[in-house]
């Protein structure tokens, strides 16, 4: 199925999440729009503090009560933003599930894994106790836990880091979610286990038609796992598009810097911290482009005029006033190397 033929399940429009005083807000997510389709994995990539986790939490309604969320979060056509807690609870953990970087933070150390899956099944399905047990075994089996039947009575600490992450995915899958929000789910794991978990998420997305938003700060993870990518900086999107296009032919100075500063023929898991300068503090962002202070091709208007995300070829968008200069700058630099 082509990209356009897949059903759009999530349509986020002008999402804004702010904290602190209304008259002097800290804007963690600023006018962010993107879509996710059935069976598609969208990578949300950017340095630490760029607003990735808050974006996911805003979708689930768990950036509240302190975070103020506005814009539209159209989930299968229905806007989640105005929903109250009770209505959100029917969506959260059921139609939309989330997994985190550190499984121990969302697993209960005092309950067996079998019981935790069973509880989730009881909350979200009509299955009786016997059917829940059978389904729990099936889920652990599906995420690749060997001898699943014998592990139901084990506690989280009896699993290795990679296996715990699988358990967390099994719990998230218990309700048959149509969207999985995965917040740096492999960052704490070693590279081999990381790959296994990413392949698992890919297979689940493909086989179950599940949409996935995968948050990461690692372009290598994006390259190997995601269908499309959205690059985030200072709470805003700078560039979106199909993964191969964005990685092979980046247009925004931030993405160009991220990608071109990685030497060729280097192992794919190169973190993003190679751009000169530091990510901006949210309370010190200019009115214009968030990247101004670190951008090699910034002009005087960049400080005051905010660039909007505009179409840049097939299924691609870029937010920059100086795209041509950016391309010229980075290709000249490359030629000189
Ligand atoms: N409850 C909160 N109150 C105030 N600021 C917050 C809160 N939660 C997150 N932030 C700020 O929002 C910004 C984005 O955070 P986050 O989404 O966690 O970044 P990322 O996941 O990309 O590393 C950070 O600067 C963080 O300090
Ligand atoms: S050229 Fe201007 S608008 Fe484009 S990334 Fe640099 S600072 Fe932002
Ligand atoms: Mg985060």
Number of strands: 12
What CATH architecture label of the largest domain applies? Answer: 3-Layer(aba) Sandwich
The overall pLDDT, averaged over residues, is: 90
Largest sheet: 8 strands, mixed
- What is the structural class? alpha/beta
Q: Total domains, how many?
A: 2
Please report the first level of CATH classification, the CATH class of the largest domain: Alpha Beta
Q: Helical content, roughly? A: 25-40%
Trace the largest sheet across and list its strands: 6-7-8-3-9-10-12-11
Overall shape: it is globular
CATH superfamily of the largest domain: P-loop containing nucleotide triphosphate hydrolases
Helical run tally: 11
What amount of the residues lies in strands?
15-25%
List the ligand species.
Answer: adenosine-5'-diphosphate, iron/sulfur cluster, magnesium ion
Low-confidence stretches: none
What is the third-level CATH name, the topology of the largest domain?
Rossmann fold
Q: Report how far apart the termini are.
A: 41 Å
Radius of gyration from the CA trace?
21 Å
Q: What letter string, H or E per element, gives the SSE order?
A: EEEHEEHEHHHHEHEHEEHHEEH
